[in-house]
Amino acid sequence: MNGLNEFICITDADVPPINLEKYDARGKRIGLVVVDEVEGFCIPGKGNLAPPAGAMPWMIERMIRNTSSLAESFRARNFPILVLRDSHIKGVPEPPYPEHCVEGTGEDLLVPQLQWLAACNGVMHLRKDCLDGFIAGIWDGDGQNSVVNWVNAENVEALVVVGICTDICVADFVCTMLSARNHFLAVGRSKLMPKLQDVVVFEPACSTYDLPRAAALAAGLPAHATHPVHFMHHMGLYIMASRGAMLASSIVL
Q: Which of 118, 86, 124 lies closest to 105 in space, CA to CA?
């Protein structure tokens, strides 16, 4: 065996299955988290990490349409919404990615179909300068966390998460939330979020990006930069489910 030089071939039989179910939220205080549905990740040609110029990819279009519909249902019921919005200062990198979603360029704004959330009462907005929105919520110095405070202030019992990318920022946030849900403080043994029970990923409102191997190589990227959209979307869902998230095909409010 040649260690890292040994190429491992993955077949369909090796891909772990996932299970999407209807999530019944009736009787629960439920919150919605929208992750990074900004122009710099969704609008073709709108930056270094946007889809190529041309038609909007179907998975992104589906995500935005379903996010807007779900968010409207939440607001109609006065359920809380948290919008995480990737936004960076020009010249301050986020390794290993090229500069993206720079403040003032428009790339860090919500897509037009979700702009109504920007001025909507009862919606909390949090800029994030890193992949994980939970980490982005940490305050300087005092140990407070904006996400934890929002969950507790809104008495959230179940959290529905949507957004982009399924296997990156969505997965990072969900996996951290699951750990935080289970974590007890050393002093007093009180939970960080005592009422939070379920963390649910609504698959029809999630998306990721497509970078075929040939396109990665043509762009001068290494072969491991290849990112097949369907496989990576599946693996993002699988990783979240394996950590304890519920995967939903529909939400009953």
A: 86
